[in-house]
Design brief:
2 copies of one chain form a homodimer. Chain A is mainly α. In chain A, about 45% of the residues lie in helices and about 5% in strands. The first copy, chain A, is built from 6 helices and 2 strands, in the order αααββααα. Chain A has a two-stranded antiparallel sheet. In chain A, a hairpin with a 5-residue loop joins strand 1 and strand 2. The longest helix of chain A has 23 residues. The radius of gyration of chain A is 19 Å and the shape is elongated. Chains A and B meet through helix 1, helix 4, helix 5 and helix 6 of A and helix 1, helix 4, helix 5 and helix 6 of B. Chain A binds a DNA duplex (30 and 30 nucleotides) through helix 3.
Chain lengths: ~160, ~160
DNA sequence: CCGAACTGGGACTATTTTAGTCCTAGTTGG
DNA sequence: CCAACTAGGACTAAAATAGTCCCAGTTCGG
């Protein structure tokens, strides 16, 4: 369906770890706490810092801390920081598209993109930490929701 | 941000092409009309057929045709057919997670997933074909929408 | 019947992304 | 100064994606 990089997941974990308090944590400390490779966590933290989701403190005794309160950080920001603002299609109205009818569908992808973006902006880190996420404000009428558990089942049987 | 395979895009194009009429089109014809490699289109069509989005007619003079009316086909179905029901995280409550706090965030990913899924279910192929997609029913208040044009700009400058 | 035109379903290869590691610099506390 | 950290890449390894090809089965038309 939709694919989110593992980094987005890692990033969220790291952010969740740091959300426990406002203290400064070194990369190695977070790595130990999260049972991940130090180098990897370090990389993640750098990415998060680049997008101002965490603040860095240099030098000995340095480390990182959440730049804002968990309720002021959206999932869209975290995903953005980790995966970059990658969108659905490539053609941004530049070229490649020879046909009119085709490009029209392209433009519509962006509408879809925006919808997803908005949905992600509504979910905060604070909510992600809570034991169970109970939506922000979404009408969950009985739509036939697709099963989410079937990972990697590219080869369908039906 | 979110990544959709190129196949999802191709699949949509193919579906859009076939939506022009209810006739039978061979893979090579679609390929020619869409200016894509025949083998690739053939593969796409097979995938779409497997999920009953198009119906196949075997033998000479055979080909594919839309299985339903464009307004009865959702983008979620097309994307699903092409990319499979891939979800955000891997752990489906099975194992790997040692920590409580971590897994709690995992569960919440699924909520997000559902939101996206629902959004995609509301957009039909018929709407995708229209010159400009004017949303289904989404409040587009002035949210700071992330720029969509910046493709592949993993290295941010800000 | 036979051959041409198609689909069905893979296998297979190439290419691009993604993930993960490491190295050199710069900063700060003791 | 030295030790503990972050900054920012470069680099390598692994995996997913995209794309091609092949062989089998089906149907139309002569």
């Amino acid at each position: 369906m939709l694919r989110l990089s593992k980094f987005a997941d890692y990033g969220t974990q790291v952010m969740a770890y740091m959300a426990k308090d406002g203290a400064v944590h070194s990369a190695s400390e977070v790595a130990a706490g999260l049972d991940m490779a130090a180098a990897t966590v370090s990389k993640i933290l750098k990415m998060l810092a680049r997008d101002d989701l965490v603040e860095s403190v240099m030098g000995a005794k340095g480390g990182y801390m959440l730049a804002r309160h968990p309720q002021d950080i959206s999932m869209a920001e975290i995903i953005n920081a980790m995966d970059g603002p990658i969108s659905i299609t490539e053609c941004s109205g530049t070229s490649a598209c020879t046909r009119e009818a085709l490009c029209s569908t392209r433009g519509n992808w962006q509408g879809i993109n925006r919808i997803i973006q908005e949905a992600l902006e509504k979910v905060t880190l604070a909510e992600m930490i809570k034991p169970k996420h109970n939506d922000t404000k979404h009408h969950t009428h009985g739509h036939h929701v697709v099963d989410i558990s079937a990972i990697r089942s590219r080869g369908k049987s039906a």
